[in-house]
Amino acid sequence: MTMWLPLLGLVLGISLGLVSDLQIPQVYGNYLSIAVLAALDTLFGGIRAHLQQVYDDKVFVSGFFFNIALAAALAFLGVHLGVDLYLAAVFAFGVRLFQNIAVIRRILLAKWTDREKKLNTNVPERKDLS
């Protein structure tokens, strides 16, 4: 059941976002963009950990809240300093997101090719009877 936690959170979040008519003020746009990237980073990190068989619920949940808190703190500090520090968090989450997706792709491709090799080796050869 724990392996479906990231996907369940994604589906639940998208469903709530589509159903609700919540308007977010433009002032909070930077914070929202960081929160979405932190959530996606944690989601794909959880999927990667599951595929590598090192998934842990505590690491997943704590990583989610820590990432959001750190990113929000950077954005908040940047607003008060007059510097766009939220861009550092956007860059970091973006890089990690693409790295996680690349690793997930490699793992799935390796599993797929291994499965194909096993299927091809188990098929007996046909002999021509003509």
Automatic annotation (TrEMBL):
Chain ranges passing through the membrane: 27-47, 59-79, 85-108
Keyword Zinc attached: no
InterPro entries: DUF1290
Record flagged with keyword DNA-binding: no
Keyword vocabulary terms for this entry: Cell membrane, Membrane, Transmembrane, Transmembrane helix
Membrane topology value: Multi-pass membrane protein
GO cellular component terms attached to this protein's record: plasma membrane
Protein localization: Cell membrane
Protein family (similarity comment): Belongs to the sbp family.
Record-given protein name: Small basic protein
Organism annotation: Filibacter tadaridae
